[in-house]
Every structure is written in structure tokens, then in C-alpha cells.
Amino acid sequence: MSPATSGPARSGPATSGPARSAPVPSGPVPPGPVLSVQNLSVRFRMRGGRRIAAVTDASFELGPGECLALIGESGCGKSVLASALLGLLPGNARTDGRALLGDLDLLTAGERTLARTVRGRRIGLVPQSPSAHLTPVRTVRSQLEETVRELTGVRKAGLRAAAEAAAERAAFPATHLDRHPHQLSGGLAQRAATALALVGDAPLLLADEPTTGLDRELVDRTVDELRRHADAGRALLMITHDLAAARRIADRVAVMYAGRIVEISAAPAFFGEPGPRHPYARALLDALPERAFTPIPGVPPELGDLPPGCAFAARCTRASDRCGTLPATADGVACHHPEETSRA
Amino acid sequence: MLELSGITAGYDPRRPVVRGVSLTIAPGRSVGLLGPSGCGKSTLARVAALLHRPDSGTVVVDGDPVRGARHRATREQRTAFGVVFQQPRLAADPRMRLTDLIAEPLRATGRRAEAAAAVAALAERVGLSGELLRRRPHEVSDGQLQRACLARALVLRPRWLICDEMTAMLDASTTAALVAVVEDYRAGSGAGLLAVGHDRVLLDRWCDETVHWDELRAEKSPSGV
């Protein structure tokens, strides 16, 4: 497995169950989405028969050149969703629904297909912690050359130049190619990891918390670079809890709570006027230090013990009896009492 | 009063990352220390928390000069500090259940008997429910683990809190919640705070005053003395 495909080899694909033919989400569908996720659910079976509902019924589409930011509190299932798309779930996970990359269903594809044609080639992963993602005992050049060789088939003669070109695309300075990961600052390590993710020229970039732990200036630079790659025609799914980063580059925002996507909105409307429509999304923005700086009361429910109705009802100021039943997603919001002001 | 004067510190005596920095925090005050990655602010925070011995300079805690770092400091001085680090995963023993994690400072100081009551009270304060407390770090999220780490920092009722990028890994709501817990504790105990970070908006909102690393090096002592 080459570095660009990320992570240790897991044993076998973790998918099973019939792919149920899910209804395609309503609304205008852009021509040929790069990624189409339909009713994706992920369940973990734990010891003692407990079941953890990490992701439930997630649906969204992502077109070329588009950036979708998936935001939510820690532990809400964001990263599990990313692992499901890459086929990197542990063995006790069961998936349901579909995740179509072109005409390939990522959830039912075998490990062989995923390893040889998907990871690094059709999906580039920009990892959460680049210094942990890179191999510590090898230089950036050596890792880039290996990835270029594996993914593009360039052989010896052209390898050095191809690796340098790959570094260039992620604005990684050629002067630092012979350094080891521990000799790089956080920002440069991030670029090295991005360079590896870009080598395969994948149409879909998956960035899982790409800015965690970076300072604001580096966050801005990192996400601007990701945006640049989206502008070059790639689809970008950025998973983050950094709302400022999401605001900076996202076209659309998907808010996840307790494993469900509770709102999908256009980013300008979400962060500006009229603001989010789901009460949870509103409360999340209000927690920002530049806004009210008030935490959402209570804690998220356990994913192993979700209530039958709306999972946010226990913390919600608008909750009523109706919230005991699960709200359907209408117009991108799954709530019985969405903010009305937005219906302009 | 927490007084750091003329601190030079680092990991290689020939290339110190902190050079001649002074910082004073009056009792009960909170100072936010702002700076880019790699500037040395975390090293200064470790010196302030008595976790790192400076190459030169002095640390005076509430009038008593510090004569050594870590185990070389007196227990009375060490336990005057509660520290919360950036990455809860690296700051938590993976073998311990959260209950034991929070109670560990009490055990280490021979106050095991108080553990049950203290943990129960603190867990509620930081928003951890009963079932979560029986889990080990790999079974909880970053946010939940950081809540436990904050409870651990508060369990000895420190007079000083050092928060080094406490919220860098956390979402907005958890950030606001943990800051509220810190401020609630400070309001009740009169503890002082040094909060290190790179988010100016957050530190301005959180602390009595915010100093930038560059000002600190230039100068005299900031802070509400």
C-alpha cells in the first residue's frame, strides 16, 4: 500500500447487507456528481450485543469543483463517514445504503478494488494529522517518489522530476524535499501530506480535519490551497469542526448531529444571513467566541442509545411533543420546528 | 502572584526557544498568551507549570521561589497548579478508566479517600455522565476526554491553572463549555489562569488581558499587577 492510500491495511471490506435501492434525494441534481451518498448508515456491533449507530441515513451529493464542509461536534460520526467512503472501517462495522463514486458503490466494493483503483487514485485523502500520516523514517522525497511510482507508473528516469512536480502542486518547497517529517513545521507537513493526496489526480479529495492544531494563519493557508484544488475541478469533502475554516472555503455546509445530517445549506446563507435553520446548527454557531460564546446545554446523546425521535430534542429550546418522532428532511433541514426566517 | 522573570528555556542549551522572557500574573487574574506555532509559548507554559526547568531565570509562586521542576519542586508548589494540555489523547493514560484518570492526582497525594465524592462532583461539573466515567480513553471522543482532563486538573483545587491550547482540538460548543467550567471554577476559587493559544478572538473573549508573544519578549511585565 502506498503512503497516499493511508492507514494500516485492514482485514477485508466491512460492508455487507443488500444495497437497498434508496430514493434519490429530491431537488435539482447537478449533472454527474462525483460522489453521491444515498441513505448511508454505519453500525458498529459491540461486545454484549450493543449496537452503535455512528452514521444514520446520510444523503448528499458532491459535484466537480464543489466544496462541501461536513461540520459537527466531536464524536458525531463525521470521521466514521469518511472511513466508510474509503472502506477503512473496522471489521465490526456494518454499512447500509449507497455511496456512488461514478458508477462504483464504495460500500460494496471489495478490498482489492478499493486498494488498487480507489484509494489514492479516485479518492485522495488529506489526513487529520500529517505528522502521524507520513512515514517518520523516510524523507518526503522518498515518500513522494514511491507514491508517484505506484500511482502513475512513472519509472526511474522520470521519477525525480515527477516527484518534484508533485511537491510543487501542493506548494511544498523543493528545498525541503530531503527532510524527514520531524524536521518539518506543521504547515509544511500538511503540504507534504496534501502533495501525496494529489499525486493520483483523484477527482474526489477527502480532507478529514485537515487543520486541527494549526494556528489561524496556517489554517487559512491550508484551506485556501484545498480550495484551489477544488477550483481546478476536483470535488472536495472537508470534514471539520473549525467553523471559520468551513466558512472560508465551503460552497455548501452539511451539519451532522448524533450520526445524522440535520441540515444542508448554502454556505453564505448558513454563515451570514439568514443563518442556519436547524436549532442545533444555530446553537453551534452561537457557541463561537465572536458570537454569544454560550455552550449548547447538555451533552450529545450516546450513539449506542439514541432516542426514537429527534436526537437533539433533549437539548433544544424549541422542542415539543412532535419531536418524539423522527423529523423528515425537507428542503435540506431535518427538524419539526426549523427557523422560519430563512424562507425568503 | 505567579512571577516568571528572565526565563530562558529550551531543549538544547545552545539554541533556547525561549529567551529572557518575563511574565507576571496577579492572583485571580487571567492572562491569554498568543503566538504562532513553534514560537516557544508552550515551553513557557511548561516552565510556568513547573514541568520544565528553565536554563536561566526564576519562577516565584505566591512568594516562594521554585527550586526545581517536576518532582524536584515541593509537593505544595506542584499541587498549586492544574494543567490542561492540547491533546487529551497524549495526556491520558490509555489504561485508566476516566474515573481513575480524574482521581489520579488525589491518589498520588495520598488522598484516595476523597476520590469518590470529588470525582462525582467534578464529573457533573464538566458534563460527564456516569456511564462515560467507566470507559477508557479509546472509547470516548476527544471532547469527552478533554472534559475528563480538565476535571483532573481541577481535582486538587489548584490556585493556578495553565491551559496550553486546551481547546485547539475541540468544536465550538465544547470549547465554550470547557471555558465556562474554567471560569466557573475561577470565580469560586479565585485561581489565576495562564491560557496559551493562537486564537485571538477566543483569548480576548476568555481572559482579562491578552498578550502577544512578541510584546512579551520586548518588554517589561504585562498583566494586571
UniProtKB/TrEMBL annotation, chain B:
Similarity annotation: Belongs to the ABC transporter superfamily.
A GO BP annotation: transmembrane transport
Protein name: ABC transporter ATP-binding protein
Domain ABC transporter: start-end pairs: 2-225
Transmembrane segments: none
PROSITE patterns assigned: ABC_TRANSPORTER_2
SMART domains listed in its UniProt record: AAA
Keywords of this entry: ATP-binding, Nucleotide-binding, Transport
GO MF annotation, one: ATP hydrolysis activity
Species of the source: Streptosporangium nondiastaticum
Listed PANTHER family: D,D-DIPEPTIDE TRANSPORT ATP-BINDING PROTEIN DDPF-RELATED, TRANSPORT ATP-BINDING PROTEIN
